[in-house]
User: Which sequence fits this backbone?
């Protein structure tokens, strides 16, 4: 596995950035542009879920339906999904500016999830 995909390997889960077929990760690019204090907020949530196996605070991690979850370090949102072999794949991210979840961002997460699953099934994702 490419180590550049991995955000954190914990006792319960490994959390990774989704990488498209061109080798790019929009979620990582978003994260990488943030100030260090905002990066640390996500990383602390990632470490907690990866080590403990669950986040109990719905204000920090929430199920949004259709097998999509969201890390919620204010003001950012990181969409993700769980995959076999105890993986959490972070697909896309944005800065939340309204009270409602961004439907286009959730739709994007669903498309990226489908792409990931298809490429894994074909054996081409981790080349």
Assistant:
């Amino acid at each position: 596995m490419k180590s550049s995909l991995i955000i954190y390997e914990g006792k319960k889960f490994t959390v990774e950035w989704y990488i498209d077929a061109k080798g790019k990760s929009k979620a990582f690019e978003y994260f990488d542009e943030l100030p260090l204090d905002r990066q640390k907020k996500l990383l602390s949530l990632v470490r907690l879920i990866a080590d403990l196996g669950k986040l109990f605070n719905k204000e920090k991690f929430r199920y949004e339906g259709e097998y999509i979850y969201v890390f919620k370090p204010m003001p950012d949102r990181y969409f993700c999904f769980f995959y076999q072999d105890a993986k959490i794949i972070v697909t896309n991210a944005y800065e939340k500016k309204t009270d409602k979840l961004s439907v286009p961002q959730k739709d994007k997460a669903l498309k990226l999830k489908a792409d990931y699953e298809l490429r894994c099934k074909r054996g081409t994702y981790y080349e």
